Amino acid sequence: MTSTTPQRARSAEAKHHRERAILEAARTLAATRSVREVTLTDVAAEVGLHKSAMLRYFETREQIFLALTAEGWRDWSADVRASWRSAAPEVVLARSLASRPLFCDLLAQAPLNLERNVSLDAVRDYKRTALAAVGAVVGDLREAFGLEEEQAYDVVATATSMAGALWQMAAPGTRLRELYESEPELSHAIVDVEPRLTRVLGALIAGFRSQAAAR
Q1: Region label for 179, one of left (φ > 0), alpha (ψ between -120 and 50) or beta (otherwise)
Q2: Is the separation of the CB atoms in 76 and 130 below 8 Å?
Q3: Rounded to an integer, what distance in angstroms lies between the CA atom of residue 96 and that of residue 159?
Q4: Structure confidence by residue, pLDDT tens digits, 37-92
Q5: Most CB within 10 Å of its CB: which of 14, 42, 170, 183?
Q6: 69: closest CA among 136, 120, 23, 119?
Q7: Residues 13-34, mean pLDDT to the nearest whole number
Q8: Where do the H-state alpha helices sit in the chain?
Q9: 57-79: string of b/e by CB count within 10 Å (b at 16+)?
Q10: pLDDT category, 2, cuts 50, 70, 90?
Q11: Rounded to the nearest 10 degrees, what angle do helices 149-170 and 89-98 cross at?
């Protein structure tokens, strides 16, 4: 008789493959629900492991999603840096974020809870990845668009923090969104992430440029 019970990953390569499987399972579940609704038990069931076996690879569910957030930072930074020539900087930033709903969800969840239930080593690794991704975008904003370093960091911080908050407010695919869209008096609650983020970032960048021109 052949056992169908998943075997423990013993080699470094096997462990890596198992970790990737866990991350992809969490990504799939979070994309169809939301990050806060996915439990460690859900991920374990999706990947075919017992919940206790998951702890051999990730210390908590938060560490799984923090790892996905780190990957999101790298992917987002690379996409933005390859897209500067396609449109104005505020358009590039807003479009790149709005096209990544899971990353927006993760951006909102990371400081609220993902960073608070993992080891300090996990937080340190995550922060280094995020800061490197941000630093690369900041460098481009300084060189290509003439912003000062502090201004460029403010633009990126505004873009990513607002993207996370606006995505939560937009409540896509939920009964809340259906409510907002069905009752005219609640129409002010309807949030379209990309155009609103574009307007805010455009005003911020224009303000910084006008300051520079005035000097």
Answers
A1: alpha
A2: no
A3: 10
A4: 999 999 999 999 988 889 899 999 999 999 999 999 999 999 999 999 999 999 99
A5: 170
A6: 23
A7: 92
A8: 12-32, 40-47, 51-54, 61-81, 89-98, 101-112, 120-145, 149-170, 175-182, 193-214
A9: bbebbbbbbbbbbbebbeebbee
A10: very low
A11: 40
75/103 Cα distance (integer angstroms): 10
**Distance between CA atoms of residues 52 and 40, nearest Å:** 10
Tell the burial category of 12 from Cβ atoms under 10 Å away from its Cβ (0-12, 13-18, 19+): exposed
Q: What is the pLDDT of residue 185?
A: 80
**89-98 and 120-145 helices cross at what angle (nearest 10)?**
150
From its phi and psi, is residue 171 left (phi > 0), alpha (psi between -120 and 50) or beta? left
Distance CA 174, CA 146 (A): 41
- Contacts of 43 by beta carbon, 8 Å cutoff, 6+ apart: 22, 25, 26, 29, 54, 61, 64
Amino acid at 147: L
pLDDT (tens digit per residue) in 142-163: 999 999 999 999 999 999 999 9
Distance of CA 34 to the CA centre of its chain: 12
The answer to whether 163 and 98 have CB atoms below 8 angstroms apart is yes
